[in-house]
């Protein structure tokens, strides 16, 4: 069992397999040049698997594969199968922008993937193109349908940005309501890699937009292991809002992050990290597990995006950690 210094049990490992991305989303990495970490600097799938399997032995029950855009790394379905074959009841999930899903969804499902989170910031082609800085919407929608057809459980993530896709919030909600997908609106997380001047909607602003069409929604009891607060419409459909500027979910945080280069990150915001790369590449799995436990021992009690510290801006690149 993996316990941090505040007594929180950790059973959820997020693994970034690449920092590369085929979008240039304004809230993430709009100006990032094509000067990526060389492939030889990344942990191989085999090395990542060594650590993941050891982590499962220590109590990890959920593994989420992230990026960057994880589907840019070749052979991802083979990697998924490695994890599934090791423990087939693991909660095995993926976060993606959906652009490469049309050809990948069935392979991933066949390999053992169970759930998938897909970014959908607008159903307006021009707005989606403005955010991603390329024409993406029709292909993303094909990807969502491919995941649905394959039988993957789907969650949709949407980041509302003022003056860009704030008017699309209810349309995205209605799309998910019609399709039967879970949708979560995510408050923009300030970071130095986002487009200058980008401002997100806060929770109250998102709820106000929803209330224009659905005035009688209500909060549902919070699942403390989830970063989202969910709300229920009169017909029973639920939508979530993730509020990083609050620390409600920190008390029950069960997550640890591993980057593609082998850095273990205890909290999305904090800069503190330790590398397992040398230990894993030298087949010293016990040392890697010891590093994991040391990282957890130093994990902070709360994130730094509190309402009181609303001037905090992260220098961490979220495309490196699957934020």
What does this structure look like?
- This protein is of the alpha/beta class and 323 residues long.
- The chain has one domain (12-320): Alpha-Beta Barrel (TIM Barrel), CATH 3.20.20.70.
- The protein is built from nine helices and 14 strands.
- It has helices at residues 45-57, 76-86, 101-111, 125-132, 137-150, 169-179, 203-213, 277-281, 285-297, and strands at 2-3, 9-10, 12-16, 62-66, 91-96, 115-119, 153-158, 182-186, 218-219, 228-232, 238-242, 255-258, 263-265, 274-275.
- The chain has a twelve-stranded mixed beta sheet with strand order 9-10-11-8-7-6-5-4-3-12-13-14. The protein has a two-stranded antiparallel ribbon with strand order 1-2.
- Strand 12 (255-258) and strand 13 form a beta hairpin.
- It starts with a strand and ends in a 26-residue tail after the last helix.
Secondary-structure content class: alpha/beta
Number of strands: 14
Q: Percent range for helical residues?
A: 25-40%
The parts where pLDDT drops under 50 for at least 5 residues are 191-195, 306-321
Write out the CATH superfamily name: Aldolase class I
Helix and strand sequence: EEEHEHEHEHHEHEHEEEEEEHH
Under CATH at level 1, the class stands as: Alpha Beta
Over all CA atoms, what is the radius of gyration?
19 Å
CATH architecture: Alpha-Beta Barrel
Q: Overall 3D geometry? A: globular
Mean pLDDT: 87
- What is the terminal separation in angstroms? 25 Å
CATH topology: TIM Barrel
- Counting structural domains, the number is 1
Number of helices: 9
**What summary fits the major beta sheet?**
12 strands, mixed
């Amino acid at each position: 069992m993996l316990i941090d210094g505040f007594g929180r049990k950790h059973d959820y490992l997020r693994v970034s397999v690449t920092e590369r991305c085929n979008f240039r989303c304004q809230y993430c990495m709009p100006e990032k040049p094509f000067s990526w970490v060389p492939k030889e600097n990344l942990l191989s799938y085999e090395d990542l698997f060594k650590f993941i399997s050891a982590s499962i032995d220590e109590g990890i029950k959920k593994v989420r594969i992230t990026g960057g855009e994880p589907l840019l790394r070749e052979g991802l379905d083979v990697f998924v199968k490695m994890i599934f074959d090791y423990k087939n009841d693991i909660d095995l999930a993926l976060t993606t922008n959906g652009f490469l899903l049309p050809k990948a969804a069935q392979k991933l499902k066949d390999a053992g993937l169970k759930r998938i989170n897909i970014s959908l910031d607008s159903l307006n082609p021009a707005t989606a193109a403005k955010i991603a800085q390329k024409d993406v919407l029709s292909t993303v929608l094909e990807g969502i349908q491919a995941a649905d057809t394959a039988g993957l459980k789907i969650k949709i993530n949407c980041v509302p940005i003022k003056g860009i896709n704030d008017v699309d919030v209810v349309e995205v909600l209605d799309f998910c309501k019609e399709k039967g997908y879970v949708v979560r609106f995510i408050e923009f997380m300030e970071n130095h890699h986002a487009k200058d001047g980008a401002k997100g909607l806060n929770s109250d602003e998102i709820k106000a937009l929803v209330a224009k069409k659905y005035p009688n929604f209500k909060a549902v009891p919070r699942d403390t292991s989830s970063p989202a607060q969910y709300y229920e419409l009169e017909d029973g459909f639920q939508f979530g809002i993730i509020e990083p500027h609050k620390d409600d979910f920190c008390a029950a945080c069960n997550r640890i992050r591993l980057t593609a280069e082998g850095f273990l990150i205890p909290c999305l915001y904090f800069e503190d990290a330790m590398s397992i790369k040398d230990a894993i590449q030298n087949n010293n799995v016990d040392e890697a597990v010891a590093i994991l436990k040391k990282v957890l021992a130093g994990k902070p009690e709360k994130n730094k995006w509190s309402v009181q510290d609303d001037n905090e801006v992260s220098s961490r690149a979220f495309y490196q950690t699957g934020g």
